[in-house]
User: What shape does this take?
Amino acid sequence: MRVGVVGASGYTGAELLRLLHHHPQVEVSYVTARTYAGERVSDLYPHLHIYANMCYEEFDPGRAAEAAELHFVALPHGESMRVVPELIAKGARVIDLSADYRLKDPEEYKRWYGADHTSPELLRKAVYGLPEIAGGKLEGAALVAVPGCYPTAAVLALAPLARAGIPGVESAVIDAKSGVSGAGRSLSLAAHFAQAEGSVKPYGVGSHRHTPEMEQAIGGLAEKACRLVFTPHLVPMSRGILATCYVRTGSALKPEEVDRLYQGYYAHCPFVVCLGRGRFPETKAVCGSNYCHLGWHLDLERGMLTVAAAIDNLVKGASGQAVQCMNAACGWDEKTGLEALGVFP
Assistant: This one.
């Protein structure tokens, strides 16, 4: 199948090109980048030398529809919703990596992103692209909204509890750390080497835009309203997210029950590795891979369950997950092109 990458000059776009090169079912036939139109992909990203004969183009919906049947849209929020409706109208399938189609309520989108949603009718059609909670909804989907990196880690950490109706999950505390590539390729003071190196800093406290996405996903699984406490931190590494989640469960839950919940829920999820009770994940172990590692501890004295999840923010947190969604949408094996293990050390 011919696929395109719209917005292929960012980190997620480059990661898509790397992953798609190893996919046996697809051929990359169209790549766009407004700033770098006319330049070769390999000039911007030398590690993608396999694309030395491919140049970035300015986005054109007609040309895009002719060039590929499915498009990954890796544009910032706000820009994506100007492109996606044009692609859908041309009959193309879309895997969108922005935040524009993740929230189902256009008013929530306006509240958190500060702008009216210009294609609210597509919000109802978009499938939230976290395969581990999507069930069969991804199969045949014309529009998939790939989750954010923080929500991917947090929701995978909490999904078994939410689905089982464990009390306390609706008010979980999520403490998460991300590498600087999560801020994207655009220059910013916070991601400047001299600012970030050797330092850890919370940001977006009480106001991070991934909060409603987490609440929507966890609330949907738990079938109740959620009010989560989410604090992200920037740490001086290129890749990775570690989300440590705290759930006040009370005294009813037992360690063996937690084991059964997680191992049972993820028994058929190829990219979630349950390390088990008392073993905790590290970002280095999942670097460059589409895997999520999970570990947990139940403090019986305090009635507190701690669950930690580690992912690569550019792979399972973005581009790898997008490819996993494409596989599910097209009826292919979910693992196709994605089974590479983490790079360590």
Notes: Residues 149-164 form the longest helix (16 residues). The chain has two domains: 2-125, 150-313. The first strand starts at residue 2 and ends at 6.
